[in-house]
Structures are given as structure tokens and as C-alpha cells.
Predict the 3D structure of the following.
Amino acid sequence: MAGEPQADCLFCKIVTGEVPATVVRETATTVAFRDINPQAPTHILVIPKAHYADAASLASAEPTLAADVLREAGEVAAEEKIDGSGFRVVFNTGAGAGQTVFHAHAHVLGGRGLQWPPG
Ligand code: AMP
Ligand code: ZN
């Protein structure tokens, strides 16, 4: 069923605590934790607790939950004090775009100058 936990999903395991993570914020519907391989001084992932393969699938199935993720991205940026200098929210979608974990997640990146367009 859409949104159900997947046994073989790394981020579902972070939601349950089976895999440890440095959690910076948690709500009833989302978890935010530090990326294990940071690409910027601040690099945090915000995920819905429910499993969807990518952000577009999440938004189609549960738009309010997609909004929760986006709102939390902003809250994380404020807590990390990167909201003033500017930050980027990225949803890699599909292997060709660099997605490696197929549980929807927002990358929140900041704390350094960010190039545009991204590579
Ligand atoms: P993506 O490549 O867009 O699917 O992003 C997946 C992200 O998850 C990458 O930036 C990884 O560094 C990160 N990642 C993988 N395993 C872990 C983990 N155990 N804890 C935190 N971040 C992770
Ligand atoms: Zn999952």
C-alpha cells in the first residue's frame, strides 16, 4: 500500500531507529537528519516518515505530507542559521539525476556559496 514502510529501505530504518542517524528535528510526519557525506557545511535530509520512492510520487499521493517536508526544510534552514545567507532544497529524482536512496528526501544545503546551475 502507498506510504507503507519498506523492509529493504535505508530511510525507513532511520525512521524506526533501526539505523542510527544524527536527527536534528522530528515532527509527527517527518524526520530531519545530517547527511552522512555532507556536500556543504550544512547538509541535512528531510524525509517523510511514510515511504514514497521520490518527491513527485509523494506530492501526488499526499500533498499535505509533501508540504510538511518543505516546511521542515525551511525550519531546518532557520535553526541552522543558513536562511539569511541562502540555502538550496534539492530533490534528486531518478538514478540519472543522482538519486541513490529511493525514499523521498529533501536535501537542505547551505553555509557556503552555491553555484548555479548545479552540476
Ligand atoms: P540521493 O543521492 O539524492 O538519493 O541522496 C541520498 C543521500 O543519503 C546522500 O547524500 C547520502 O550521503 C545520504 N546517506 C546515505 N546513507 C546515509 C545514512 N546512513 N545517514 C545519513 N545520510 C545518508
Ligand atoms: Zn522508505
User: Anything to note?
Assistant: The chain has one domain: 10-110. The domain at 10-110 is CATH 3.30.428.10 (HIT family, subunit A). The beta strands are 23-26, 30-34, 42-48, 87-90, 106-110. The radius of gyration is 14 Å.
